[in-house]
Amino acid sequence: MIYVVGMSGNPPPSVGLSLKKEQADLAKAEQDIVEGERRVAEQELLIAQLRSEGHDTALAEQLLATLKATLAEWYAHRETILCTIHRLQAREP
After folding, report:
1. Average of pLDDT values for 64-76?
2. How far apart are the first and last CA of the chain?
């Protein structure tokens, strides 16, 4: 059977599965973000310590920039997941 929007008033079973998958993806994204924020904070502390001891911080700062860029991508990915969840929930009766 081909599902046509409005045909029976019920979404196809795959919508529920997609919503569950997206919710699981959101939980994973949240965990990744928390871990990423922790890594950024630790790297910032390490850089401060290296500076206070007179060490070169160039590589540590490059790593920090990479960590921050990755974290920004994770924030964007979380927003995409949230938009998908909202869209799927709007389809539910």
Report:
1. 98
2. 20
- The answer to whether 92 touches 15, Cβ cutoff 8 Å, is yes
Measure the CA angle with vertex 17, ends 12 and 22; round to 5°: 125
- Name the residue among 81, 66, 73, 67 with its Cα closest to residue 28: 81
Per the listing, tokens 């909202």 go with 86
Element (H, E) at 37: helix 13-52
Q: Is the pTM here over 0.70, yes or no?
A: yes
Place of tokens 């969840």: 85
Question: CA neighbours within 13 Å on the CB side: how many for 61?
Answer: 7
For 13-44, b where at least 16 C-beta lie within 10 A, e where not — what string?
Answer: eeeeebbeebeebbeebeeeeeebeebeeebe
